[in-house]
Amino acid sequence: MHKKIVLTGDRPTGPLHLGHYVGSLKNRVILQETCQQFVMLADVQALTDNFHQPQKIRENILEVALDYLAVGIDSKKTTIFIQSLIRALPELTMYYLNFVTWNRLKHNPTVKQEIVQKNFGESVPAGFMIYPVSQTADITAFRADIVPVGDDQLPMIEQCNEIVRHFNRAYNTQVLVEAKAMVSRVPRLPGIDGKAKMSKSLGNAIYLSDPEDVIAKKVKGMYTDPNHLRVEDPGQVEGNPVFVYLDAFDPDQENLAEMKAHYQRGGLGDSVVKKRLNEVLQAELEPIRLRRQEFAKDPGAIMNLLLEGSDKASETADATLRDARKAMCLDYR
Amino acid sequence: MHKKIVLTGDRPTGPLHLGHYVGSLKNRVILQETCQQFVMLADVQALTDNFHQPQKIRENILEVALDYLAVGIDSKKTTIFIQSLIRALPELTMYYLNFVTWNRLKHNPTVKQEIVQKNFGESVPAGFMIYPVSQTADITAFRADIVPVGDDQLPMIEQCNEIVRHFNRAYNTQVLVEAKAMVSRVPRLPGIDGKAKMSKSLGNAIYLSDPEDVIAKKVKGMYTDPNHLRVEDPGQVEGNPVFVYLDAFDPDQENLAEMKAHYQRGGLGDSVVKKRLNEVLQAELEPIRLRRQEFAKDPGAIMNLLLEGSDKASETADATLRDARKAMCLDYR
Q: What residues of B are in contact with residue A123 (Cβ under 8 Å)?
């Protein structure tokens, strides 16, 4: 039977945090047992809005790879690769660009939203505008069936499949495969400042690589219920980051339910809840941090592993490209 | 001393005609003696507005290559190659796309004009919009000093050099070389129907591959001075396609001057002038046609020659890409 093929990855713009861990990394550790999984370090995509900071991307390739290995993504089960080493990808992107109009790109909801977020104004780099097409190359090159995404990324998958259908129709072929979005059911982890999203750029994240004391300090300073002023006041649990994190990480959900009830009727201080969260997070993150330190001792070995993964990924992508070129009458050799 | 490097080429969308011959091919035969010349069969670019007709592009790769060889472009002196076989080109294109804004592309005068000509309306393929960036990859990959162009293409070279400067500044490098446009001083050859431009799409061209009788028939049917109704009427020489062609091709320019004077004062019939033009064109085109027929006997050998040229071109382009990637901190290996 055909093993499902998964494509996923990250932009190497900084180390990974708890939000990545809950939202995608844990899932990858599970998926690698049943699927053929490709995990991409998207350096080319990261450059589209960091093109003047190449050194940052370069450094974070290694940091993110360490995070992957530390959480248990296994390079024997998962092909971890560097996007810019896969020569088929830019070539497929060029061919796909013929199947999407300028106007369609401009109206992609995900892209529109990100243009606002990134404050590009009138100066949107063309490389950024076309990244949905570049993603289509990523997805189709590996003939991925499944692409794990957040629900804000659904328009990207729709655009990808549109291109797939146009290409297959134009060249009367079945070379390209439509992908299914696998939308994460895990609620998004808020930042430690209470903002809706944990993110590198907001500076409100707990990183997988954070040392014990940094985690403790971040937990201590976490935003909770701003109306929970005195211990005896009733506190709010919904949307309270400390409880959202406990929901996600506390193995003792029974005790957690009791704590929530206590907090809601009043009499439970934030510091007690935070103490519990610190215990829980330290227990979860310590083995990850230790494995990370172990892997970090030999960065050369990690890079070799990425190069090997990239060679393997290249073979797969080149096979797709070969078929696509044949369909396009570009099979000169 | 550094030999000047020339990059030029054609979109393989149809066989080449007299306009190409006068405007560029003859020049290439001269340039190959003193420069390092790369001539590109731009199949990828041709696909941007012919993506649904890949077979047409494929067939014309061979036709155009035959035209090249027939006019005397020598594969030992000139590297003739197929664009889609040069893997560095799409990759460089992707990186360069970060250095040009969406708005800048939209306002490129050459692109704007061509969008109107090609009746794209609101449905401009993104692949077409970005072709100035793709051309920048073509030019810079070979570190071309000189790019022969028509004056309508000057904004393209300007855009190319803009990207070169941005890239070099951003990565603090001198990897990319600015190119100089070499604007043809040869006046554009009108169509046989008197329209300003000889072109495949207008169906008003004399092809290098046209047989003798087809040339004779096309010359006989040529548009001349519409007010030159009777032989004894004075006729107009300026802008009269028959005389424009004679200016370009007649080796006996003294006799031509006499014919012009005669035509202007009246008494010289169109048929006499056309007879002369037919003689001149047949003399020019016969050896080309014969060489073409000779080369056409072994299409396999021609394709091998293109593949060899493409390998050679790939080496050069890969060296540039390697330097560019190093500047971008993408030198993982």
A: 101, 103
